[in-house]
Structure formats: structure tokens, C-alpha cells
Design a protein that fits this description.
Chains A, B: It comes from Nitratireductor rhodophyticola. Chains A, B: This is Recombination protein RecR. The structure is a homodimer. Chain A folds into two domains: about 50 residues, Helicase, Ruva Protein, domain 3 (Orthogonal Bundle); about 140 residues, Dna Topoisomerase Vi A Subunit, Chain: A, domain 2 (3-Layer(aba) Sandwich). In chain A, about 45% of the residues lie in helices and about 15% in strands. A five-stranded mixed beta sheet of chain A has the order 4-3-5-6-7. Chain A has a two-stranded antiparallel sheet with strand order 1-2. Chain A is elongated. The termini of chain A are far apart. Chains A and B meet through helix 1, helix 2, helix 3, strand 2 and helix 5 of A and helix 1, helix 2, helix 3, strand 2 and helix 5 of B.
Amino acid sequence: MSKSIAGPEIERLIQLLARVPGLGPRSARRAALHLIKKKDQLFAPLTAAMAEAVDKVRVCSTCGNVDTSDPCTLCTDPRRDGTTIIVVEDVSDLWALERAGAMNARYHVLGGTLSPLDGIGPDDLNIKRLVGRVAEGGVSELILAVNATVEGQTTAHYITDQVAGMEVKVTRLAHGVPVGGELDYLDEGTLSAALKSRTSF
Amino acid sequence: MSKSIAGPEIERLIQLLARVPGLGPRSARRAALHLIKKKDQLFAPLTAAMAEAVDKVRVCSTCGNVDTSDPCTLCTDPRRDGTTIIVVEDVSDLWALERAGAMNARYHVLGGTLSPLDGIGPDDLNIKRLVGRVAEGGVSELILAVNATVEGQTTAHYITDQVAGMEVKVTRLAHGVPVGGELDYLDEGTLSAALKSRTSF
């Protein structure tokens, strides 16, 4: 909006809302208006929730998950099987696998994939900490739940090389994950099936 | 999410984000994760913008627009033609007309349309204040920019009756083919209206 229709505070709110994934310039205006109309039911509670979350959000120093505590809820949950680590590219993949609820293991978030063309090497990812977790012992299986892309598979191979010689079995998700597909978009059934029929890497 | 993956603050953030128009349960998770990742660039500024807006938002007691001042920016702008009032159903319609930038007039937001079936009568809308603005004088034209629905037209007729006898011209938006629109996709009502009010070329 070139000319100011509403006050600068509302204009700024719309501009920032437009940068939230899922919203664009037009839907940001609709969202802002809806928030203003539902001031007590939605706008104020959402603002409070954001203020609380923005202060408390931490990246887990063990697994790379985001949570409000470090180590995170999943790393400290005593009911989880600590002998299995599911390695994912991104927190969104972790959330997708947790929604599928197929395994009660621990996780490790890489924060991306190896991509020499983009200048992303092993040191840019959370790989050293993963190798450390395996070296500390007690881990019998690494499930490489990376995306079925070239970068994902390259990263899987690199990790396999890094833990070669250690007492750990490395597996990967079963085929069933569509080639080129992203975990976050898959249905829970497919994700469960892919986990159950995981194969040796 | 039935079980808690992230901390309760993040879960609550996701739940509230899912109620923002344009986002759903899945995109709310993606949005939350994006906010967390872009903590300094987006999450913190957006939270601050929301906190500022939620406190400052006002409904203009003159025209019903939302703004951070009352009377609003449009009602106090001395460069606007106060003799013409564009009557709209909703603030979103006001914003749409302002983006079009076709007129430099003042506005009046009704807050809905008459709908006896839904129990919405004249007293539930911002009509009395509109009649008052006309009665105060200085207004020569009311443009009824209500939607071309049964409720919109009923509301337009009601307002016309209310200001009958006052020194004010009541007009409505022209019906016709949208600019860039294809005839094939238009409804019969629009086509009939466009034919009836055809203009010389």
C-alpha cells in the first residue's frame, strides 16, 4: 500500500505478517483485519503466546531440535529408546515423524544437507555432534531419515562414512518415500510404513 | 498434535496461529518453525508489531474504520473531499477501494448487511451514525458501495429510505464486466446489467 490507509502500527503489522509462510500481501491484510476484529479472542492471546515463545525458544544442544528447554523434551524423555537415533534434515521432518508416531526413538536434526554448490559442507551441519553421540556409546542404530533427494543421499553417505567402524547399524527409510518428495508433506501412513520396513544402508 | 513434541509455549503458538485466516493446522506448524528460525529477522519484530498494534487499535467513532487513532486517518485527512461518503460493508472493502485509489472521498463502514434471517437488524449496523453524518450537513453524495448480493441491496434500499428528504444524492457502484474479465466466466446477472448500462464507444 503506497498511501497510508490505517495507522503506521497496522501497516507495519501487515508488512510483517506478509512475510509469514502461508500468507502473502493480500492474505496478510485479511489476517490483520481478522486479528483486529477478534482482538480479545485471538489477537491478544496470540500476541501473548508469541511473546512467551520468542523469549523461551531454544535449540537443543544435544539433538538440534527446537524447544523451550535445552536439552529438549524428546532428549530428556525417559520413556524414549535412546539406542536408536533418527537423523533428519530439519525440525519440520522431526515433527512430521512424531505426528506419524511410528517410533519412540530419539532424534538428531542436521539443519540441512551437504550441498557443495551452495557452499554447505560438513561443518555447516550438525554432524560432528551426531558422531559424538554415537562415539559416546549406547547407540545401536542410526536411522537416516533424510529426504530422497541427491543432497539427502549424499549426506547419508557422508554420515555412514563418519560412523564406519563404530558399533552402530545404519539404516535408511524404506522406499515408499516418493523420489524427490519431502517428508513434511507425506501422510502418516506412508511415514509409518517407511519406518517399519527400513533397510540396511 | 496429541503428544507434546515441543514445549507447551510452542504448542500454544501453533494452535493460535492455526486460527489466523490463511493458515491451517499444517501451515501453522510451518509458520511457527519459520518464525523460530528467523527469530531476530521476523519473530521478534512481528511480536513487537503485534504488541504495539493490539494496544493501539481503535474503531473510528465517526466512520467505523479501524485505525490507531479515533477519529481515523481518513476522517481527519484535510485533503479528502468530505462532501462524498462511500458506504461499505466492511473495513476490507474500504481497504480494497483505497488500493484502487479511484476516489479521494470519506468512508462509512456499516459492519455488515441487514439479514433478518440471521437476526441482524438496522441497530446492529453502523447506520444511525451514517444518517447522523448526513443530517449534520455538508454531505452531497452517498455512494453505496455494498456488495451486489440480496443482503447488500436490501441494506442499500434501507439506507436510501433513511436519508430520503435530506439534501443528498444517493448513488451505487456500476454493475458490469470486470476489467480483464472474460464474458464466458461471468454470471447472467452481471452480463444483463452490463448490457443494460452499455455506454457509447
